[in-house]
Amino acid sequence: MSVLKPFSKLPNLDTASILLVENEEQVQQGLAEALVEDSAQAVNVRLARSLPLPLENEKTRPRIDLVVFILNLTSDKSFKSANESLKYLDPGYFLGKVCFMVTNARYASGNMGRLDAVRKMAASLHCPLLFAEVQSPEGVTNAARRLLTILKVASGLVPNTSSLYLSNLTRCTKPPDIDQPSFD
Amino acid sequence: MAKLVSLSDSDLSASSEESVSSRIHRSLRLAEQEKRKNEAEKPFVLALKYFSEVEVGTPVVGNDEFENHLAQVEKVAFSKGLSPEAVSVMLEFAMSLRMGSSPCARVLKCLIPDSVVPQEAVFRAVVWLSVGKIPISTQVLFIKWVLTVFDMIDAKDKLRAIYGFIFSFITDENLVCDSNAFKLLGKAGRQPYLLHLLSLYKVFCPELVTLSIPSRMRSGFKNHISPWKSALMALQKRGSLQVASSISLNFTLKNKTGSRKRRHRHLELPELSRVTNTGVNTEQTSSRKLVPLVQIQSFEQLLKNMHQIELPAQMGSLLGSRLALQYLDCVQDESALLRLNFWLGYALHEEFLFCTDGGAGQNAEEALQFLNKLLSAQQFLQEGFHSSDAFLYKFLNIWDGSLLRPQILGLLSNIPVIPSSRECQNEKLSCGLIECLNNMLLKWLTWHSVYALEDDLDISLHSHTSINITLSGFKDSVMDLVCFVGRLASVGLQLEGCHSLLLSFVLDFYETVCDTFLKFGLPLVVMPPPGVFYPAMFATDPVSLDRLAYIMNRYKMNLTSAKSQEKVTSHAFHISRQTYQEFNNYLAFMVNCLWNSSMRCPETDIQLSEELLAKSGVPQPWMRFDLIHHPAFMMYAVEFHQKCWPGRKDMDLNSIKQAKPWSWYLEFLFTQGFGGLKDFFQNNISRPGQELDSAQSKKQPLVS
Fold it and tell me: Where is this region: Disordered (chain B) (predicted)?
């Protein structure tokens, strides 16, 4: 089965699993290390360039609690690849178990069109849109911490809350015009 | 012709004196040198005379006289520089197009001032710019020249008045429309300085420039200004440049900083410095005497000279000086604010938005200091700058939630009221964020109580803008903010396990919210969501509960006062039935829980069934949250019990509920500093402490 499903497997005890999807494979590794290092709970990090995931690892793969698409804003291919991958996710994932992480946003802010496209995509899928400063180690650690906050909720490790409830607040909304305040 | 004659003259005199003796020869030689010098200047004077008097329509092609005079001017310009009068004459000649447009560019290129540039000349040239049919490339050349010599213009009072005109000239004539801009770009060949100018404009008013401009563009004007700049520097080396060192220092500094370090210079606040250091000229050209800001040392001096302050050459320097900020605050000078905002907006954009090299970490310290200076300036002025607001709207979109967080949150809390609902997507639930939002709300409310007009219809949004917002629009904005923070706080408390520090910041926020009517005069009452109320109610620390009691008490006072006003005046604001109901439910629950030892809460959305409570195995669950058994107060109850009955071995906390000990216990609690609880009970329980049976105490919820 090529479509990834959120509830097709049983979870492992006290373990959260996260899938990082990045076409360029630049940030993935560092972020994965930071995720494992920073968490008190056991975190299972899986890496992929794009979806669908290969069939041969299907058996050994744990239940994925959170799918993170890492988008490099300086590259067009990054966005295209993520966009292509989305259709291999079960709709159940879009109830708070997918988020987009944009890198290099400050280095490509001359190109507002690309950022707009990403924002539109995240807003239409009701997913949170995070930004990360991956040029510095502090930035990577911080990005990992933010992902962990979402991951813990998505994997059911935080009592009394669910990923759907959290995503109600954190999901990206598309303001009418991001460049200018509307009274200007 | 004139030059030819003078040359033959000097040749003649030199040949006739060859046979004279050495002593006489020497004195004569000195005299002759003097004479030569005078005569060398003579053709220059003649040339200037020619250019000031030449007839309109004189042909250029084949005109030797013109050619010789211009060569003479060029020679003087590049060797000694041109005097202010010469600059005036030549600029007037070039811009008036008396001999057509062809010599115009050549004249502009040799306009190297030796001391200052008269403001009058530039002013006239701008007038010609709009009258004449000067080719676009020459117009651009002129603007570049003005930019280069800008610091050498002797006074800028008149020029400042036409800034807007110059800017609108550039935008309207050439750069606004896509088609025109492309035409211009086609002619000028997409030259970097033009793109740079466009990029400046994109920063200033992005809606006017629809072109996409490559962000990798650092050395905009550099190469193209250099002919003048190198000439000016050469003059300065020879010591013939009379302008003070501050300008030349600027040039050398700029040359020193390579392209890699270039961006860093935005982060250093420039020194307060005068426009030019040649004070004499300033006094001559302007009608009144101006006092440069740098000379002002004390507040008294500032007050004395308030009407005749000369702004510094670089507006960024204002941020670093308290007196300058005081001046800005008192005078509300539109053009000064415009210049400052432009500088600030550009610096912020360059440094934090258009990063090209990967040096995010290396200038962190500088960035920190820069933003702290900006913050302290804003705190001093008690309001934000437009440009920093506009920058934030962009920056927040791509912020990672941690980079320079304290500074960004500080700037954020200075944002003025935003009419439409705009949620900053941000899931970093931290105390800092709630504090920032509380500050923001406080500033909005303070601003409202200061600027709102009596008829409460139109409010000027910013003390120095003309943007207005209606009262209902303002209320909607505040409502949006409060509701947003309510949601944020609910989720945050849940995620952080009702962390008491976070709870404290959330209660800070609601201390502001509950007093919007009485303290700030804004007719709006918003109750906290259950996600905030119940965590505070069941908090394990007595301080949170005490603050909740204080907040509920303030809510009651606000609501009663609003209600009494509603009865008296017809156009008082209306509080919805739902708000009263929410308040009554919360109040009833609090009184029942703390005072009556019952968990009954009428008509609330949260209902616990008796069976479920029984399943928990807790004996008498309805008593667990009264003033004695509440986890926050148990410690006090035990202490009181020990003090009250020192001899008793077996502790029975329920014995406190008897009449006398109960009133003593309340007294004891109130002496522990729980002022919020004291007020709450005095206002909500009839005859506190006198009712022996607590079940008989009456609660007085408001009726809507």
Answer: 1-20
